[in-house]
Design goal:
Elements lengths: L1 E7 L9 H5 L5 E4 L2 E4 L20 E7 L5 H14 L15 E2 L20 E2 L16 E7 L9 H6 L3 E5 L9 H10 L2 E9 L5 H13 L6 E6 L8
Parallel strand pairs: 7-8, 7-9, 9-10
Antiparallel strand pairs: 1-4, 2-3, 5-6
Helix pairs in contact: 4-5
């Protein structure tokens, strides 16, 4: 059938991920750092994604496309939620097992030993973290773009100390973080959230996912955004 459906200009797309976060049907995903229409039948043609695109890469077109399939969309959402549940580490891969650390309770290291790691748990990648874990209870969350830790020598002390750290890059990871972050906030007793991002546009996808999760969690959780320049200076 011929119907209205979105089209994404790959040349204009800057990989920020805003459209993927805005698409409630899951029709848009990040592939190779670019927004991509994953399936025609997931797109309802209403265009919630259009106003979120900062570069005007998304437009409507009339073309031959599969009809919108609401049942398939709901099934995909249910499957995504199921896959976001905590899973046991695969056999032979103990490194992905979730565990808490207690860096602030450790004795002070001699000055000659250098700075102390303030990592409070493992794993730290948003894609690998479980949605429920003891280390979330009563925790302050740090949701950070993975580049941020390399921009400041004091990142552990300034941002990670006393927080549970979640890192990701919306330009490199496929999919959207909003749904998983929503479940983490909804299912656990989170005290506050700090979002740390770089000034580059693609980091906006991480910020928007976190803000979406805060809204959808149904909770009032204090939060703040810290933006770092490429030189590591705090911009706001």
């Amino acid at each position: 059938m011929v119907r209205r459906i979105i089209e994404i200009d790959q040349e204009k797309c800057n990989g920020c991920g805003a459209c993927a976060a805005a698409c409630h049907e899951g029709a848009i995903g990040m592939v190779g750092g670019k927004a991509t229409l994953l399936r025609d039948d997931y797109c309802d043609g209403l265009g919630d994604c259009l106003p979120t695109c900062p570069t005007g890469a998304i437009t409507f077109v009339e073309r031959e496309a599969a009809a919108y399939d609401e049942a398939a969309v709901q099934a995909n959402k249910a499957n995504a939620q199921k896959n976001s549940a905590p899973k046991a580490a695969p056999a032979g891969c103990p490194g992905s097992m979730a565990r808490a650390m207690h860096p602030d309770a450790a004795p002070a290291a001699p000055a000659s030993a250098g700075p102390i790691s303030r990592l409070g748990q493992w794993p730290i990648q948003i894609k690998l973290l479980p949605v429920e874990a003891p280390f979330y209870q009563g925790a302050k969350l740090l949701i950070a773009a993975d580049c941020t830790a390399f921009s400041r020598a004091d990142f552990h002390e300034r941002f990670m100390r006393g927080r549970i750290t979640l890192i990701g890059c919306p330009k490199l990871d496929e999919g959207d973080y909003a749904e998983k972050l929503t479940e983490i906030l909804r299912r656990n007793d989170i005290r506050e959230v700090t979002i740390v991002r770089m000034e580059v546009p693609c980091c906006g996808g991480l910020q928007r996912a976190a803000e979406t999760a805060l809204r959808q969690s149904g909770k009032f959780i204090p939060w703040q955004v810290v933006t770092l320049g490429r030189d590591g200076n705090i911009l706001d």
